[in-house]
Write a structure and sequence with these properties.
alpha/beta; Rossmann fold; two-stranded antiparallel sheet
């Protein structure tokens, strides 16, 4: 059996390498490395605007990761922007929603990471809290700069996420926003301060969102779970 192909949504940003400084489609290497380490074949998916592009891409994938990144456009959930909400990317929002639509239509396994979880919730009709420190009184979830916060997460017994990562774990996170409402998803993990840290769909399909960054940790249980689900999907379609 060939290794399952896992699509990874990407940033589109100004970037510098060698003698070049250009607009580039990019993603931290940790995502692709974690997929490869768990038996998948990673494929980068830059934001596209062509009609039907998401359906064409998803038809060639066995699994999908909606990656971390900038804030989601608050207009997508009919809210005014908080002063700390910035740098949203309408092109990426539209592309990732289209990918999720196409994935749901065919039952493709999906994992949302950080922003990816937020996109999943907003697509489903949910709302975000735009600045977590306003709610919890600290900045442990995003200490600033390029540093990750470290947060202890407790999972709900009997859930898919608990089966993949255990009863509790310390996670790396980098987010100042969080999911407030999530229609169609069950809340399956929280931080001690009450922040929702993971959600999943009921049923057999792997459809999971986590607020942390599993690709940065030695424990890649979530990505391993996605790759296993993708292998099953590939074998059954």
């Amino acid at each position: 059996m060939s290794a399952p192909v896992i699509g990874l949504s990407t940033y589109r940003e100004d970037a510098a390498w060698g003698v070049w400084r250009q607009h580039a489609d990019l993603l931290p290497t940790q995502y692709a490395a974690a997929v490869e380490a768990t038996g998948g074949v990673p494929v980068l998916l830059p934001p596209l605007a062509q009609t039907g592009a998401a359906d064409a891409v998803v038809a060639r994938l066995d699994g999908l990761v909606i990656s971390g990144g900038a804030d989601v456009d608050p207009g997508r959930y009919a809210d005014a922007a908080h002063p700390r909400t910035a740098a949203w990317r309408p092109d990426r929002d539209a592309w990732e929603v289209a990918l999720l639509d196409a994935a749901e239509a065919v039952g493709l396994p999906v994992l949302g990471v950080c922003r990816g979880m937020q996109v999943m919730a907003v697509r489903a009709g949910g709302v975000l809290d735009q600045h977590v420190p306003d709610l919890v009184g600290h900045e442990d979830h995003s200490p600033g700069g390029d540093a990750f916060g470290e947060v202890e997460v407790v999972t709900e017994p009997g859930t898919r996420v608990a089966g993949l990562v255990g009863e509790r774990l310390r996670v790396n996170c980098h987010h100042h926003q969080s999911v407030r409402t999530h229609p169609g998803y069950d809340a399956v993990a929280h931080a001690a301060d009450g922040t929702l840290e993971a959600m999943e769909s009921a049923g057999d399909r792997f459809s999971v969102g986590v607020q942390w960054h599993p690709e940065t940790a030695a424990d890649v249980g979530l990505l391993a779970g996605l790759v296993r689900a993708a292998a099953t999907y590939a074998a059954e379609r």
